[in-house]
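Page 42, continued from yesterday. The earlier attempt failed because a stray header line got pasted into the input along with the sequence. Redoing it now with the clean sequence only.
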Amino acid sequence: AGHFARAVHVPNLKSLAAKVAVRAVVGGSGGSARQAAEKLGAPLVATDLSAALRSEEVEAVLIATRHHLHAEQCIAAARAGKHVFVEKPLGLTGDECREILAEVEQAGVLCVVGFNRRFSPLATALHKSLEGVSGPRQIVCRVNAGPLPKEHWLRDPKIGGGRLLGEGCHFFDLMAWLADAEPVSVSAQAVGDSSDDVVATVKHADGSVGTLIYSGLGDPAYPKERIEVLAGGGVAVLDDFRSLTLSGWPGKSRKLRAQDKGHRALLAHFVDTVREGTALTVTAKDGLMATLCARAASRSVAQGKAVSIK
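This time it went through. Structure tokens are written below.
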């Protein structure tokens, strides 16, 4: 029940109250967990995940902890027979992610990774427009992430994994989804000696190329994310999940009254899948691929050459 969970997931869970009931809230401190539990009407408040996993009333677990805890908590939930919604990244290493995949498959439970941007209504419209476009695609994701304090936990490689993994995994996943092809290699360079300011170019199996420009050097007051796709004689520009411009492709350009990055839609998709047995559209395998891309980008920066993704 940290800041992100309270700001994003708690309101979305309340809005989905007709479909899902929260039975327990687990937090690092009893105070934050108790506040969230009161808002959600959850009867159990705990600082120990195992207390919630023992409850027969609990069918699924939403994991929004710091990144170094994701793997062990996913595995514990799967072994307890609970479906899993885990915020990105799935794990800090490929081995962690593969272990999660194995446990989830053995337990026969669902595992969704929080790649919410796929579920933005504008990203969904862009993806649908691409269905009629043949040939490889060129994709550019520019992320004006803004600076973070040096002591921020996200920048700690053992806890947050660093920004390229902890946040950049969103965009490695988004580019693979828009390309509709798996990544096969990554070539990356850093600006100066920074690990926060990186340009990573991803080659995909169908010949598509995605470029992630991730930077903390810009003005945080300026819009954060811009995605451009060029393919088949057309262009699409998705601007900060507020507007979508299409040129040369089917579909209509449109603007939203407010930014929508798809958080609620992804959570609703997970809830519906658990309740109704429908197919997942984002899985732990996608989490593995995004982590592998981020790790390959970091190795490419260090080695000065392209790194293959296995």
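Notes: The CA atoms of residues 23 and 42 lie 5 Å apart.
Reminder to self: strip header lines before submitting.
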